[in-house]
């Protein structure tokens, strides 16, 4: 919110005229550990998508609040959640992906498959990875897909939001190569190593007009010389101060669960998409790449 509304040059391009798509990723290297029995009744969609992921989505897509009063912020976030196009039984096969990790190598160590974890049914059909393509039926974001993915036992722990801008309308610098100009990408690294990176195209030195993508990087740790508080430290402090801004209001909870429940119902009634398997320590199931069409997920 501070980056968007505290600077003058981001907000004018924060809309469907300039943004091609948005990616939101919450990847974990850990498995379910001792939470297998709980996870069997939850799964990635309930455990991570309906709260953490949709909260990040609402913060990215919200309109400017009239002030920073908690209710003013919640009002704008609720509008985003209510604008999400429903993904029911007729769309789950094309707009969602679900998968479960099997044994592999994570950070140099052998990792068991989900069905081998303590408290997990050997024939479990619970997803440990979920990906969605979401559209917001709002004036600002009409036609812009938001791609959300979360999973356990992936190759790297990261939480990030990346805004992928549209490519230039005319190809001038390809030097007759059958490639398009790479898009500019603005990435928020939420954890770990919190910061913001802007990638843009620069000319490679020499007599040609060939280009390469370069990064302009900001890191909270190096800029301010101190670590940010952990997420739960911040929430506990807010609770003691009576500040509910980062908490969910009842109508936010209702809207988020309403959207997720339709997907769950679609999975149950149609059996689609099928539950895939992915190797622990990898980037997730192959079908998640298909969800993006001609675009690509940011590399984990």
Task: Tell me about this structure.
The protein has 300 residues and is of the alpha+beta class. It has helices at residues 2-5, 36-61, 70-83, 92-95, 220-224, 231-241, 250-270, 287-290; strands spanning 19-27, 96-102, 104-106, 109-111, 129-135, 145-151, 158-165, 185-191, 195-203, 211-219, 276-279. The chain has a single domain, classed as Dihydrodipicolinate Reductase, domain 2 (2-Layer Sandwich). It is built from eight helices and eleven strands. The strands form two sheets. The protein has a nine-stranded mixed sheet with strand order 10-9-8-7-1-6-5-2-11. Strands 3-4 form a two-stranded antiparallel ribbon. A hairpin with a 2-residue loop joins β3 (104-106) and β4. α3 (70-83) packs parallel to α7. The longest helix has 26 residues, at 36-61. It is globular.
Shape: globular
The CATH homologous superfamily is termed Dihydrodipicolinate Reductase, domain 2
Question: How many helices does DSSP assign?
Answer: 8
On the 0 to 100 scale, the average pLDDT is 92
Largest pleated sheet: 9 strands, mixed
The share of residues in helices is 25-40%
């Amino acid at each position: 919110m501070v980056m968007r509304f505290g600077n003058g040059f981001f907000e004018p391009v924060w809309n469907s005229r300039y943004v091609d798509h948005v990616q939101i990723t919450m990847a974990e290297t850990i498995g379910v550990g001792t939470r297998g029995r709980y996870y069997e009744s939850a799964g990635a969609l309930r455990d991570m998508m309906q709260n953490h992921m949709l909260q990040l989505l609402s913060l990215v897509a919200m309109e400017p609040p009239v002030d920073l009063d908690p209710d003013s912020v919640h009002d704008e976030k609720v509008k985003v959640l209510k604008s999400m196009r429903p993904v029911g039984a007729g769309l789950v096969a094309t707009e969602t992906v679900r998968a479960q990790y099997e044994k592999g190598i994570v950070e140099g160590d052998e990792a068991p498959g989900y069905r081998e974890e303590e408290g997990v049914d050997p024939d479990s059909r619970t997803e440990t990875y979920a990906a969605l393509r979401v559209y917001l039926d709002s004036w600002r974001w009409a036609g812009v897909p938001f791609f959300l993915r979360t999973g356990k036992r992936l190759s790297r722990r990261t939480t990030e939001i990346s805004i992928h801008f549209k490519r230039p309308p005319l190809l001038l610098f390809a030097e007759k190569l059958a490639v398009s100009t790479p898009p500019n990408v603005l990435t928020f690294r939420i954890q770990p190593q919190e910061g913001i990176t802007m990638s843009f195209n620069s000319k490679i030195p020499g007599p040609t007009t060939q280009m390469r993508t370069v990064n302009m990087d900001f890191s909270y740790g190096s800029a301010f010389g101190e670590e940010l508080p952990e997420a739960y430290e911040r929430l506990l402090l807010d609770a003691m101060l009576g500040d509910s801004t980062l908490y969910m209001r009842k109508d936010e909870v209702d809207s988020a669960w309403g959207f997720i429940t339709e997907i769950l119902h679609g999975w149950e009634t149609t059996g689609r998409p099928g539950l895939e398997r992915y190797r622990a320590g990898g980037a997730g199931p192959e079908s998640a790449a298909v969800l993006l069409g001609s675009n690509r997920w940011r590399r984990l």
